[in-house]
Every structure is written in C-alpha cells, then in structure tokens.
Amino acid sequence: MADYILEMRNITKTFPGVKALDNVNLKVEKGEIHSLVGENGAGKSTLMKVLSGVYPHGSYDGAIYFDGNECHFKDIKQSEELGIVIIHQELALSPFLSIAENIFLGNERKKYNIMKWQDTFSEAKKLLERVGLKDSPETPVMNIGVGKQQLVEIAKALSKNVKLLILDEPTAALNETDSANLLKLLGELKNEGITSILISHKLNEVSSISDSITILRDGQTIETIDTKEEKASEDRIIKGMVGRELKSRFPDRNAKIGDVVFEVKNWNVYHPQQDRKVIDNANFNIKSGEIVGIAGLMGAGRTELAMSIFGKTYGKKITGELYKNGKKIKADTVSEAIKQGIAYVSEDRKTYGLNLIDDIKRNITLSNLNRISKNSIIDERKEVKEAQFLREKLNIKTPSLQQLAGNLSGGNQQKIVLSKWIFTEPDILILDEPTRGIDVGAKYEIYTQINELAAEGLAVLVISSELPEVLGLADRIYVMNEGKITGELEGEDADQEHVMRYMTGTGGAKRANVN
Amino acid sequence: MQTLISLFKNNIREYGMIIALVFIASLFWVLTDGISLNSLNLTNLILQNGFILVLAVGMVLVIITGNIDLSVGSVVAFVGAIAGVLMINNNVPVWIAVILSLFVGALIGVWQGFWIAYIGIPSFIVTLAGMLIFRGLTLYLLDGQSLAPFPDAFGTFSGAFLPDIFGGEGIHIFSLVLSGIMSLVLVYLEFSKRKTQVQYNLEILPLWLIVAKLAILLFAINWFVYQLATNKGIPMVLLIVIGLIIIYTFVMNNTVMGRYIYATGGNKKAADLSGIKTKRVVFWVFVNNGVLAALAGLIFASRLNSATPAAGNMLELDAIAAVFIGGASMAGGVGTVIGAIVGGLVMGVMNNGMSLISIGIDWQQFIKGMVLLFAVGFDVFNKNRAGK
Predict the structure, then answer these.
(1) A356 chain-B contacts, CB cut-off 8 A
(2) Which residues form a coiled coil (chain B) (predicted)?
C-alpha cells in the first residue's frame, strides 16, 4: 500500500456551459515527482486551482485528502498553511522589491509589525543557498533573469515549509541551462522529502524526471503511468494525450481552394523589450477559400506571428515581406493592414476585441466607419441596418442592438468580434483562438461561419491551442515550436500524433521514417 | 408605471442628475422666496456660469478619453492676459486679438497634447505642470498687476444680449421666436429618431412617455427663455454655450471622430487594434480643449472687463466636478456633453443660490465638495449594484 500525500477523488468542476473536470482522480505518493500532462484545456490548471483553494470547497464536487485528512479549502491561504504551494506560470513577484522581500512577501519577518531586516536577509540567504542561487538577497527582482526568478519563487515556497510543491509550466520561459538547473533542483528537493507536481508541455523533461505521470484529456483522467513499472517514453505519453477519436463536432464543408492569396516570407520578429527572437524566419501562405491552421503550444509564438503581421502590433525589428495576390504589400499600421484586407480577431476579446461599455452595433462598425459614413458624418440608419444584418447572419442572441457588449455571454461576444471584422470586408481573416472559453453550441456556430467565409473565397488562418479544432477545421496545418515553423502537414499526414510531435519539438524523425 | 420604474432604473445616471438639478433649483427657490428663479437672477446665472459651461464641454471630451486637464484655470488667466496685452497695451483690433487668443489656446493644446499622446507622460502630470507654467507666464505678462479696461467692443463676449429685431416693448420678442423654433426642431428630431427606431425594431419608449418627456422639456426651455425675455433677452454667452452644446453633441453622437473618442476611452487597446490612431485622437482632444479654454478665458476677461493674474483660479476643479457630476467616468469611455452641462448647472445653481441666501464661502466650498462626493458615490454605488 503506497503512502499517498495527496488524493483527489472524483473531482468534478463545471463552469456555465462547460464541464472542465469530469470525475478526475489524482493520487500523489509522498516524496515523488508527479507530472501532470495534457493538451491546453485538458483541465490541468483547473485541477490545480481546485487543489489550492482558488476554487473554494463547495464550488466543485469530489473530495481532497491531504496527508490522510479530508480538506475543505476556502482560499489559497488555507492550503498554504498545510504546505501546498503553487507556483504559477506567470510569476507573482514584485519587480521593484528585493529578493529577500519577495521571499517573505505576506509572511514577513517582523516584531510588532516592524520589519526585522536582519532576520529577513539572513533567512533569505539560507533559502537561496538551498535553491542554489548565489545572488545577494538585496538584489531587486527585476535585475535577475527569469530562470533565477523561478528559483526565488521556489525559495519563497520553501520559506512556507512546503510539503507539496506545484509547478505550472516552470520551464516554459527558460532556456536549456536554466531548465536543467531547475529540474536538478527538483530532484534535490525530492531527496529532502518534498513532493512535487509538475505541469509541463515539454515531454522530454516529463519523461526523464517523473516518478509517475497522470494524463488528463478533456477534463478526465486517462491514466497514471508509474515509471518504475513502465518506461514512459515521449511516444507513450503522446499516445495517452491524443488517443481520442474526432467526434462530429465540426460542420461538413466542401473546400474550393484557389490560388495563393497571402504569403509571408522570411518573417523575423524580436521581443519588444528583450533582445530575443520571437519569430524566427517564418514562411507560409494561404490560398483563397482555404482554411489554414497554426498549431503550437503556449509560447510557441503563434499570436506574436499574427499580431506582427497585422499592422506590426507586436514586436520590434520586424523584417520580412508580405505578398497579396503576388504583389508585395505594406501593412505597418493597423489601418494600413485593414486597407489591405487583413483582419485579425484577437484571442482576448475582452482586452483587445471589444469596447465592453459600448453597445453591439457600435462595436461591430468601429473598424470600418467609412462604410457607414459620408464626410465623416455617420449615417445611423445605415449603421443599424448593417449591424442588424450581421446580427442575424451570425445569430447573435440579444434582445437589441443597443445592448452593451459587456453584458453578453462569451459566445455572443465572440460573434460580435467576428462580425466586426467581417464588416471590414477582409480578404485575409486571421482568427486567434476563435472559440476560447465559449460553449459547445456557440463553437459549432462559429465553425459554420468560418466555413462560410472560406466558401466566399476568403483566405482564413486559424490559430488554436485545441488540437482537435485545428485538425477539424483546417485544410492545411503549420506547426510552430519556439518561434519557428517546424512543420507543414496536409491531408492524411495531419493527425494528432504528427502535430504533437512538431509542437513539442520532438521533430520529424518519425515522419522521415514514414516517408 | 412599471415601464416608468424600469426606465428610471436603466437611466438612473441621466435622470438622476436632472432630478438633482430640479431639486436643488426648487430648494433655493423656496429658500430665497422665489428670487433665485426670477428673470434678473436667471440672467445673472447664465452670465456668471457661461465660462464654466464652456470649460465643461472641453473637459468632458478629455475625460471621456480617460485623461484629465488640470491646466484650464491657468489657461483662462493666460489667455485673458494675452488678450489684455494685445487689446489694451497694443491697441490690436478686437477681432484680431480674439482670433490670436484662440490660436494661443490651440498652441497650448498642441504643447500638452504632444507630451501626453506622443511621449506618453500621464495627463495628470503634464497638465499639473501646465497649471504652474501658464500661471507663471500670466504673472510675467501682467507683471503681477491687473490690466483694464478692455475696449467696449470686447464686452460683447459677456455682457451683451441678442438684439431684438422685432423691437418688442418690455419683452424680447426675438428670443421667444428663437425658443419657439428650437422647440419645433426638438420635436422633429425626437420623432424622426423614433421613426428610425420603429423601422429597425430597436427598443422604443412608449409614446405617452415621449410626449411627456418632450412636454416637460419644452415647458422648461420656453419658460426659461420667457423669463430671460422679460429682462433683456438671451445673453450672447448663452448663445455661445447653446452653439457649443449643439456642435459637440453632434460631433460626439454622429461623427467618426466622436466614435473614435468614445472607443479610445472605452478600451484603448481594442481601439488601437481596430485601426484607430488613438494617439492622434488624444492629441486633438487636447488641442480642442485648449481652444475652448481660451474661449472661456476671453469670456471671463470680458466679464471682469480686466485681465488679472488671479483669474480662473481653481476653475479647472469646477469644470472637472461638473463633468463628473454629469455622469462621466474617471476610467474613460463614458460621459456626455449634455451631462457635463447639467453638472455645470448644478454647480452654478448652487453657487448662485448659496450666495443669494448669504452662505459664506467657507460653507459653500464644503457643500460643493459634499455634493461632488455624493453624486459620484451614488454613481459608483449604482454601478457596483448593477455589476452583481
């Protein structure tokens, strides 16, 4: 009988319209490194939020046992008191404070609410030694790199007497040396008796470090592999992650694909703040009537690629050429891009897509007011007519066009954003995560729209983290990994395993064999 | 009744302010035994508050973009000083001096708009600096002294009244005619809007409500103008303010620029990604505010008939208060020209009424502060409740 530090039994968590977790079971043995893998949206982060108390007891079904006792966490504080500490992908450090202050943030070394600086720095120094960081504890956090910041987070966790350390994509932003250091540290912590849960997309790391691996898919536990009994190769893990048939979640369509409409050549983009290449020599094209998918994991550079093309709204030192119908075009600003017939539907509709405090019709017409105005004066009748047309075409469910965008559901909001860009009469439509966070019914409607737009002859580019979506929609798929387009798949080649291989950077070795 | 309640709940912002204005006006009407609403005092009310209303119109645009302008009080003084130096010291003809003054206002807007929009310094900082800079320049220009008097022609800006082309005796007929025409235009606009709404299946109010709303509005306008007409008629300042209300309401509701301003304030990132040059929008809104502040400065100087170093002190706060009382949001994206005017009138009626019943400046400040706090607090409370 194994000694479990954590047991999560039959966890079910529903959001309006979506079952994010469906009877998930997770058992973690004391002192092991347990990896949690699965596609984006499989439910890994949701599960960890249930565990850490972000979603309080009562908002989910099922039971959590920690050290043999059932737990009812109301907030993160309570789970931290028991020694469960989660380190999120976006680090929660305050950049202007010193390393030591960050380590004890919210947990200050103090007497009568007066800081004890001596203790703060000396204890911080000890913790830094444990994680192998040699910088002075007085260094401001913004002066050290991401890899070291990650170590500070771990030191912070250690300061709370952590028993179970959860790391969400800890190496996503790290280079190889830093990643190796971090993984080594996890091994050392394991020897000190600290249990870790590692969420990662980098399957090579998962495969090499884990004692056991739990695979989640579509909110369900698929299996737990014990690496002592069975060797978990990357292939083995991928099989578990994707082993699912594509249900008929996608409307049928007959693609009539024409000539190349849009072509991107030798596209290079640098990070806006750091001197780091985000997009490395990307080349791709889209034909008229064609739906092209871009697959890739978080941080692969898909959104960055799209936004840098759309009026250079991301990045700096952008080089490369854009061609439309064989002619070189310029799209250095958003309005130029719109004039060239490029439309970009952002992945984050609330931040980049909509004015939530304005009504539906004004949101729809905003990007192309010329179409409804004369001498800069808006023809409101025409506006209402056009907005009404799109509202019916996309089946936006709302009592009136005067409804504020912020009052609508995610699916309806997404339809407004889509309407807004259809209203610009584009030739090239870039859709970034077009169905993120919306329910199944609305997804189907949006897929139908995308198909119709392609049938009208548009060149459509769909970026999605959901593999089935890319596979179900696209005629052709480009796969990105770490800023590079690592593969192009079409027809029979485009299956989940191939795409996953290119996505995780495990490359085309297998493909070479197949060919 | 049900419709009325839900209508009120949905538009609590707009109607709340108007009810507050009516309440405050009635309160002073009782407290002053009717003096506050007699024809002489209503005329004074307009003359005293005209420049604040002009400032409020410019300010509401700035606040809708999510910015603020603390410098307008100093700009009022500075432009008054420029006008004084031009007209009094250098005998520049009035109309040329007026155009030059407005141009100076535009330049001030260019200066501040440049730092805010293109360099990215927060407007609070840039205009706080502007507040000091232009007050300093005013003191320098005037050498710390007042300049007076202005040429008579310059008095048109504040003291003059619309001439009565019909030559009425004891009553200003032309004013009444104008108010009659305006009433007809309002009725026409309301019903043509309704026609569109019906045609396109938009939400409409019940007919009786529209008629009731129009009846109250028309009664208020015509009664107000009738009171003015029994005195000296419509003051020029009121014509300027009404002109600005019409122009800016049209710009904000019916033009591409208006849309851009609301979109920039509502969600700047989304506006940028919609192809709107938000920097340019913010820049021009500040240029516009500079010109309107200059216009207010001219009205102010004309009313005092002198250019003084202390002119317009703290006026920016009155203008900002008017805009927020009128329902604008600090976060941007929300606000109307009419709201700002109503807010300005709330402030104006309070100033005027409290002076009439001889409340000292100490308590006047206190009460205005409390009204601002509660007006905006009421708004925030409503929003939080709606959010739940």
Answers:
(1) 266-267
(2) none
Number of A to B CB contacts under 8 A, please give it.
Answer: 88
Q: Testing the interface with A: which of B203, B274, B329, B379 to mutate, by most A Cβ within 10 A?
A: B274
User: Phi/psi class of residue B276: alpha, beta or left (left: φ > 0; alpha: ψ in -120 to 50)?
Assistant: beta
Token digits for B76? 């009022």
The residue with tokens 């499989």 is: A42
Verify whether the Cβ–Cβ distance B259 to A362 is below 8 Å: yes
B173-229 pLDDT, tens digit each: 888 888 999 899 989 988 888 887 787 777 777 788 888 888 988 998 899 899 888
- For residue A136, the SS3 value is coil
pLDDT tens, residue by residue, B102-149 = 999 999 999 999 999 999 999 999 999 999 999 999 999 999 899 989
- The H or E element that residue B110 is part of is helix B94-113
How far is residue B122's CA from residue B104's CA, in Å, rounded to a whole number? 23
**CATH of range A260-341+426-514; options 3.40.50.510, 3.40.630.30, 3.20.20.480, 3.40.50.300:** 3.40.50.300
CATH code at A4-242: 3.40.50.300
Q: Which residue in B201, B203, B256 is closest to A378 by CB distance?
A: B256
Contact A493, A477 (CB under 8 A): no
CATH topology match: A4-242 vs A260-341+426-514: yes
Calpha distance B198→B185 (Å, rounded):
20
Write the pLDDT tens digit of every residue in A253-279: 777 888 999 999 999 999 888 888 889
Annotated domain spans of chain A:
4-242, 260-341+426-514, 356-425
| Closest alpha carbon within chain A to B253 | A378
Indicate the residue of B200, B257, B275 with minimum beta-carbon distance to A388: B200
Dihedral sign from CA coordinates of B210, B214, B216, B217: positive
